[in-house]
TrEMBL record:
Pfam families: EGF_2, EGF_integrin, I-EGF_1, Integrin_b_cyt, Integrin_B_tail, Integrin_beta, PSI_integrin. This is Integrin beta. Belongs to the integrin beta chain family. The lineage of its organism: Eukaryota, Metazoa, Chordata, Craniata, Vertebrata. SUPFAM superfamilies: EGF/Laminin, Integrin beta tail domain, Integrin domains, Plexin repeat, vWA-like. Residues 38-457 form the Integrin beta subunit VWA domain.
Length: 771
């Protein structure tokens, strides 16, 4: 079996081309691919799609669904903009009270009269796929009221802490007065679910309890001190405490605690861990926490019945009730509560000293940290709706995505803003408006947004049910087309789905007996051809039998009809002043006018906007160039010399005066172009500034570009002066050769004589030795 070795780079090119094509198809076919049968279906496809209501818009063979197309495509197909149904989204701000500019010490305002977020209420009308954006402003108000509830672990290990908390009320009131003139404080305690009493007889403690609300929120700090001073520590069986039960009750029992719609702080003080959902099984409690208030006489009465709440349940209730939590814990358990803080938005952790002596500073620091950050959250979104945030914070800091929900390091009086973009991807099943809310975590204010969904066209309400236009009332005539009743088909609902037979298709949908049904470019519906759609919405089949198209015409420069016409039924219909099968031949003669206002200098004819020279000697856009005429070589001599050899009269102005031709250097004269090529050629021989011959050719190629080939090898001229110089040089060389030869002969003779003498001396020495 033959194997094909395809280079890896070719595979990459093919893969890129395929992915690019798929991407283009995906871009093209959003409206076309939907096959929308009505205007309402069309506008739900996406924001780019529109519906043409013009009754005469469709051409023969085009289905009703082709009324749905991209807006620009509808315009090109001849649908007037006044006939295009293209509803747009909109927004109305219903309540837009300005944020409060309040200064501490000014007139007292009720909490409900202070505004920190703007606007407060608006309505958005959403077209599917088209986002609606609005700006939300937040300003942290000065002297804003605060409610603080102190929830303390009264297990036995917190005995020394209780002593320091007894004076907390008045001291905290004093410190908080520096922040707000309207401060209230409350107190509650917790230990554990009541199962057994672990206290022994010699310990001054009461049996454990889950949660007690000891002091409803009050502005009387002394009352706080008195009541806390009456408390005793309690016992517990294990180290983790039942604090989550207490937090849940504090969050949901607003009337008992006395929460106002102001800043709500919950200080949770303990030196131990916590129980959570599932731990109740150890005591036989299996029912999950119901998240409801169960306080009777300020005691949590259902601790033996419901399990501890889960962390997620606790997060939800704290958020729903705008409560910010401060965990005041000992250093040993700080890592545990830091992990818990990461799960609870708008919470803080402070390290409590061994006896809680630093609790006031801890609360102040935690409050400043919490209040300097704003985090937006939204209620549950309807199905198919998305929301995106972009923040513009202090000092020009911006954020997007999840970071777009928050701003940090906000001081009192600082303005920050958010751009919120809401997009609908699908219409709600019930078709009714939906309401969502956006609020800053830990604050009682919120923005209420009503979402209306544009899922039907305006022209729908003017529809005529059982219209005579739709074949004796078999459909509703709306938006320029018939919406057929169930069981009816056809452009005018003229057929029943039970009446169409194969024989009908063969008889009515073939152009000739031997041709394909609908030319194999469409489907036969109710005896009429409905042409197929192309992936590219610009390309369409048409005609009674779908025999025509607008994309199979001749092309020029890879453009349909040369870009100077349009294709109708596979023939180019050219624009004015263009002709030819591909509309690539211009009838405009202005491009052939020479400087003397003659067409082609009177030496040719203008064909398709280009001069055709009748005299083969002439070339150029206007037949103005004669490369073989006398004087051409002399005309270009100086420029060729300066560009090729850097000599001659124009060597200093060469770049300015001589850049009108392309220069190609060849090795020698034999390499120059020879006559017989496609365009006329002139061979030139000129003398340069050094009295040498140089050779070149001059021509104008098919692109009307001047082209010069020059030989790099020059030749001497035959002038007497040069002949004498050459002869003198030759004589000098010959004389030097003769002198060198004479010196060599003298040198050789001397060397030979020396050799003979040494030879004789050697012979005499041999005779003497023999004797």
């Amino acid at each position: 079996m033959k194997q094909w070795n395809i280079p890896f780079c070719l595979w990459l090119n093919l893969l890129f081309s395929l992915s690019h094509t798929v991407f283009q198809i995906t871009q093209w076919n959003e409206c076309i691919k939907a096959i929308a049968k009505s205007c309402g279906e069309c506008i739900q496809v996406g924001a780019k799609c529109g519906w043409c209501m013009d009754p005469g818009f469709l051409k023969q063979g085009e289905a009703t669904s082709t009324r749905c197309d991209e807006l620009e495509s509808l315009r090109k197909r001849g649908c007037s903009s006044t006939k295009v149904e293209n509803p747009q989204g909109s927004q109305w701000i219903l309540k837009n009270k300005a944020v409060t500019n309040r200064i501490k010490g000014a007139e007292n305002l009720r909490a409900e009269d202070i505004t920190q977020i703007q606007p407060q209420k608006l309505t958005l009308s959403l077209r599917l796929g088209e986002p609606q954006s609005f700006n939300l402003k937040f300003k942290r108000a000065e002297d804003y009221p605060i409610d603080l509830y102190y929830l303390m672990d009264l297990s036995y290990s917190m005995k020394d802490d209780l002593e320091n908390v007894k004076n907390l009320g008045t001291q905290l009131m004093l410190e908080m007065s520096k922040i707000t003139s309207d401060f209230r404080i409350g107190f509650g305690s917790f230990v554990e679910k009541k199962l057994l009493n672990p206290c022994t007889g010699d310990q001054n403690c009461t049996s454990p309890f889950s949660y007690k609300n000891l002091l409803t929120l009050t502005s009387n700090g002394q009352e706080f001190n008195t009541l806390v001073g009456q408390q005793q520590i309690d016992g517990n069986l294990d180290s983790p405490e039942g604090g989550f039960d207490a937090i849940m009750q504090v969050a949901v029992c607003g009337e008992h605690i006395g929460w106002r719609n102001v800043t709500r702080l919950l200080v949770f003080s303990t030196d131990a861990g916590f129980h959570f959902a599932g731990d109740g099984k150890l005591g036989g409690i299996v029912l999950p926490n119901d998240g409801k208030c169960h306080l009777e006489n300020n005691m949590y009465t259902m601790s033996h019945y419901y399990d501890h709440p889960s962390i997620a349940h606790l997060v939800q209730k704290l958020s729903d009730n705008n409560i910010q939590t401060i965990f005041a814990v000992t250093e040993e358990f700080q890592p545990v509560y830091m992990e818990l803080k990461n799960l609870i938005p708008k919470s803080a952790v402070g390290i409590l000293s061994a006896n809680s002596s630093n609790v006031i500073n801890l609360i102040i620091d935690a409050y400043n940290s919490l209040s300097s950050e704003v985090i937006l959250e939204n209620s549950k979104l309807p199905e198919g709706v998305t929301i995106m945030y972009q923040s513009r914070c202090k000092n020009g800091v911006t954020g997007e995505g999840e970071m777009g929900r928050k701003c940090s390091d906000i001081s009192i009086g600082d303005d920050v803003s958010f751009t919120i973009r809401i997009t609908a991807k699908q219409c709600p099943k019930m078709g009714k408006p939906e309401t969502i809310k956006i609020k800053p975590l830990g604050f009682n204010e919120e923005v209420e947004i009503t979402l209306n969904f544009i899922c039907e066209c305006d022209c729908h309400k003017d529809g005529i049910e059982n219209s005579d236009i739709c074949h004796n009332g078999n459909g509703t005539y709306e938006c320029g087309a018939c919406r057929c009743n169930e069981g009816r088909i056809g452009r005018q609902c003229e057929c029943s789905t039970n009446e169409v037979t194969i024989e009908d298709l063969d008889k009515s949908c073939r152009k000739d007996r031997g041709t394909d049904i609908c030319s194999n470019n469409g489907d036969c519906v109710c005896g009429t051809c409905e042409c197929k759609k192309r992936e590219n919405p610009e390309e369409r089949y048409s005609g009674m039998f779908c025999e025509c198209d607008n994309f199979n015409c001749d092309r020029s420069n890879n453009k349909l009809c040369g870009g100077h016409g349009h294709c109708e039924c596979r023939w180019c219909i050219c624009d004015a002043n263009w002709t030819g099968s591909a509309c690539d031949c211009s009838l405009d003669t202005t491009t052939c006018l020479a400087s003397n206002k003659q067409i082609c200098n009177g030496r040719g004819t203008c064909e398709c906007g280009t001069c055709k020279c009748t005299n083969p000697k002439f070339q150029g856009p206007s037949c103005e160039i004669c490369p073989t005429c006398p004087g051409v070589c002399t005309e270009h001599k100086e420029c060729v010399q300066c560009r090729a050899f850097g000599t001659g009269e124009k060597k200093d102005t060469c770049e300015r005066d001589c850049s009108y031709f392309n220069l190609i250097k060849v090795k020698d004269r034999d390499k120059l172009p020879q006559p017989g090529q496609a365009f006329p050629l002139m061979h030139c021989k000129e003398r340069d500034a050094n009295d040498c011959w140089f050779y070149y050719t001059y021509a104008v190629n098919k692109k009307s570009e001047k082209e010069v080939h020059v030989s790099a090898l020059r030749a001497l001229t035959s002038s007497p002066l040069w002949a004498g110089v050459v002869a003198g040089i030759v004589l000098i060389v010959l004389a030097l050769l003769l002198i060198w030869k004479l010196l060599m002969i003298i040198h050789d003779r001397r060397e030979f004589a020396k050799f003979e003498k040494e030879k004789m001396n050697a012979k005499w020495d041999t005779v003497r030795e023999w004797r």
